[in-house]
Amino acid sequence: MFRVILIVLLVTFSTAINGKFVPTHSAVLDEDNYYLYWLYTKETITFEVQAKTTGYVGFGISPNGGMANSDIVIGWVKDGQKYFKDRFATGKSTPVVDTSQDWTLVTASDNGTWTSLRFTRKLKTCDTKQDIDITESTARVIWSYHTADPASETGTLPQHTKRGTKSLQLLSYGAGLLKTPTIPDDAIYFDILQPNVSVPSDDTTYYCAGFKIPEYSQKHHVIKMEPVIQKGHETLVHHILVYACYKPVNDSLHGFHGVCQNKNMPKEFNCISTMFAWAIGGGAFYFPEHTGYPLGAEDSPKFLIIETHFDNPNKRSDYVDASGFRLTLTTKLRQYDAAILANGHAVTHGEIIPPGVANFKTVGICPSQCTSQAMASQPQGVKVFAALLHSHLLGRKIHVRHIRNGTELPLISFDNEYDFNYQEGRMLEKEVTLLPGDEIRTECVTDSTSRTSLTLGGESTNDEMCISVLMLYPPINLTDCSSSVIPQNVVDIAGPNMDISEEQTTKLNVLHVLGPAQFAGQTLYQLFNSSVNWKDDVTVRRFETLLATRPRYVSCNVFGKIDYKVPMFMPSNITKPLPVENNDLCNATTPGTTPQPSGGSTFMAQSIAYIFMTVFLVLFR
Question: Is 512 a catalytic residue?
Answer without folding.
Answer: no
